[in-house]
Amino acid sequence: MKLHSINRLIILGSLILFFAINVYAQPTHQQKSRFLGGVYHNKNLNIYGLSLGLYSVDDEQRSTNTFGFKLEVPGLGIFLPLGPLSMVAKDSVAFLKKMTKPVSENIYGLSISATGTLCDCKTNGMAIGGIAQYNRQVNGFSLSLFMNNAQKHNGAQFSMTNNSFVLNGSQLGYINKAHQLRGAQFGLVNVSINTIGLQVGVVNYSKKLKGIQIGLWNINAKRQLPFINWDF
Predict the structure, then answer these.
(1) SS3 of 61, please?
(2) Where are the beta strands (DSSP E) in the chain?
(3) Residue 61: what are its φ and ψ, rounded to 5°?
(4) What's the gap between Cα 62 and its chain centre?
(5) Which residues contact 72 (CB under 8 A, 6 or more apart)?
């Protein structure tokens, strides 16, 4: 074997060994990596590909990142409509408290849960929960059958009932609720405390409105009117 071929093998072997040491022999407090697939219940883990698990809960700190496709079966979303209280913050103090703590899981891509999730997740892409779902933040698109909740949602939110403390985008459903709306709500009943944008529905309510309301009955701080209302 020629000398330059031996040198190539030595260099290649060294690179493989270096890669293996950095991926698999990291201390437990550092992020580990799994390629093609992994289980998102493990802590301090980066998953590139398919991320699998049984459920997610709001108070779990895992520091897990999924780059690709997260699949949650069966999920705990079936219990969300049965709860007596909403998981969305009631005021700005509670919202800031929830948003400033470290997020448990970041998802870059597609997240699907069979019944839905109760995840302290930041989803960048698409979140689909079969029955109901809660995410800390969604940047993109989210869809559920009965209930779709988020502390902060940038993008489009679809369900029979939608609820976000901060919504930058749009909601489409029977009942839509937001504390701070920058965008549009389309539904039977639309409720927003601070609104910059548009509400279209049967009944529209906004405590502070900079925009237009279109519906059978429209309520804002200045007036109550049928068909169309506004404040700028």
Answers:
(1) coil
(2) 32-39, 45-53, 64-72, 105-113, 118-129, 132-144, 147-158, 161-172, 175-186, 189-200, 203-219, 224-231
(3) -105, 105
(4) 16
(5) 53, 54, 55, 56, 111, 112, 113, 114, 117, 119
Quick one: pLDDT band at residue 22, thresholds 50, 70, 90?
Answer: very low
What does the pLDDT read at residue 23?
44
Question: Residue 129's pLDDT is what?
Answer: 96
74: helix, strand or coil: coil
What's the half-sphere exposure (Cβ side, CA atoms, 13 Å) at 18? 6
Q: How far apart are CA 73 and CA 227, in angstroms?
A: 45
Residue 12 backbone dihedrals phi, psi, to 5 degrees: -65, -45
Q: Sheet with 224-231: list strands edge to edge.
A: 32-39, 45-53, 64-72, 105-113, 118-129, 132-144, 147-158, 161-172, 175-186, 189-200, 203-219, 224-231
Q: Cβ of 227: how many Cβ atoms within 10 Å?
A: 10
As a whole number, mean pLDDT of residues 130-135 equals: 96
Give SS3 for 100.
Answer: helix
